[in-house]
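tool=predict chain=A
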Amino acid sequence: MKHPIAGALALAIATALAGCASTPATTAAAQESPMTGIAYSGPFAAPSTLDLNYPRFDQIKDSDFAPAFDAGMAIQLGEIDAIANNPEPATFQNTIVAMEKTGLLLDRATGVFFNLVGTDKNDARDKLQSGYAPKFSAHRDAITLNPKLFARIKALHDARATLGLDAVDQRLLERRYDDFVRGGAALTEAQKARIREINTEMSKLGTQFGQNVLAEVNDSAVVVDTRAELAGMSDEQVAAAGEAAKARGLEGKYVIALLNTTGQPAEAQLQDRALRERLHKASVARGSRGGKYDNTAIVSQVLKLRAERAKLLGYDTSANFVLADETAGNQDNVNAMLRQLAPAAVANAKREAADLQAMIDREQKAKGQPTFRLEPWDWSYYSEKVRQERYSFDESQLKPYFEMKNVLENGVFFAATKLYGITFKERTDLPKYHPDTWTYDVYDKDGSLLSIFIFDPYARASKRGGAWMNTYVGQSALSGEKPVVANHLNVPKPSAGKPTLLTWDEVTTAFHEFGHALHGFFSDVRYPYFTMNVPRDFVEYPSQVNEMWADWPDVLANYARHYQTGAPMPKALLDKVLAASNFNQGFATTEYLGAAMLDQRWHQLPLEQIPDKGGVMPFEAEALRMDGIDYAPVPPRYKTPYFSHIMGGYAAGYYAYIWSEVLDANTVEFIRRNGGLTRANGDRMRQFVLAPGGEIEAGKLFPNFAGYEAKIGPLLEKRGLTTK
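tool=predict ok
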């Protein structure tokens, strides 16, 4: 399962700050607010002078952020006050559109900062993040809870049928009104005061949670004493583990770095069962083992605050508050889908487990040793053996054909060119925030510059786990801007001089994240508010669709080439890859549903039932049991103390991946029926799904594309959950 668009913090702040457009590049060296007289001189005073306002990473220092934040908030509050206190009656232009034009300086600064926090943390940025989290929260509340501003928005909303607005303007007005109401604007003054307190506290706790997760990932890395214990890993991987140990001052030892998922990639290779067990236990203990990075107290506090806020806003649970603004609508609809899928997924996982146990029994018997029961740390290792036995291939055979840059340029880009007519040209003249990044111009089908794309593939200690897309510059007609977007992976970096060879999962992740990038490239909206502003349970849909091209025969044949010889992957191996597409889906679906259902259990708890710190892990165990998803060999993809999604933008929203996958499976079916990798299908996808952003209600986009409502059948078939 891939991670979301997750320029999340910057995007969340930008959206909540009531409009954050940028303007075309100027040469101005300073910004002064005519409303406040506040002057600011610094790298964020004006848009970048580089193409498409690409950030001047070479001129931005950590010390530049605080002055920009302070000035940006002050200037925006002055702009908001001018709108709220305008003596003229409220109009759509002087209130709603005016809000879209506020906060430009703050948007530029936070847009860069929060993206850097995710990709390349350091102590200075950590300190800034912690220090400004409550300030940004208070700033958002100062806007959302401004009674004069809300009065103008409400007056327009009440009279919306008489204003002569077109569909886009009408939707912007309605969305702004809903956002303010959901932010507490219609509450009493006492209730607003409590909302402010809750938001401030949650911002502090959320920041600390994220910092603890990254610290735990690094602190829990497994140290290995001997080369022999690493049997099964490639020479390149062993060398990288040795380099990681050297970096920690552990000369002669080896370090296996952790990813933020429960399962760890090395478990599929390590022959030493004791080491696999140690690696797994180190992974699942993160955030709940006591010490300074323990997250259980934070989880309890955040959940209680969310439940209290939901109650203040008129909702019985935090989940229903969140879901009221998603396509799902309410928690009952989410529960119904998850509970429909869970029994079939677990049954499928148990069938897979029986195959793995049989493999263990045979191997142990052949060795003349007693057998053992399948455990979570055994699953990946023996599933690779079963895959190899059943389909006569394993990951080690595939990886030489998946050199990373070739996958990107001759796979990901190739598919996009065939489908959408866009082309790519690498740039080496633009500054980088980290040397391990690549930059490309993206040209539209008419040859015009469409976007700039940053590719950041490697894992590092300063980078958060997972894979995501973020936006540095968003498109809108009002601002006249075109997008600058980035994809981030967490591929282990090989030792110097060695090629970067991807696993099949990493290949599909690259295609997935590029689906988010395409969503950014093709945005064609009027107002900044609508730029990629779609419900969380829709946002994964375009990215999941883009995964289909990873194993599309014409695409796969174009990029699956041996990194040394350039020879194409043999057709027999290609066929085996395709034949194995549903392999291990019981495991994959069960571990995902475990996390998704856990997320719902937490956020569907009434305030008075949320446990304190000591009850967090017992509740997790009981929740999984109650949902019938507590199958020991397949733990949830994320356990609560390192479940970053639900402590961030996916609270009560991790179900979104499977919800979106219904649309994905239906879309793949439609595309296959209508010619596959064709410009006609690409143009249709661009027009009806990718370009509208938030201008059209998300629930209408698939029917507009396909001409009919989505059905669950294609998902069940894709996941191997149908009985034949």
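Residues 331-367 form the longest helix (37 residues). The longest strand covers residues 449-458.
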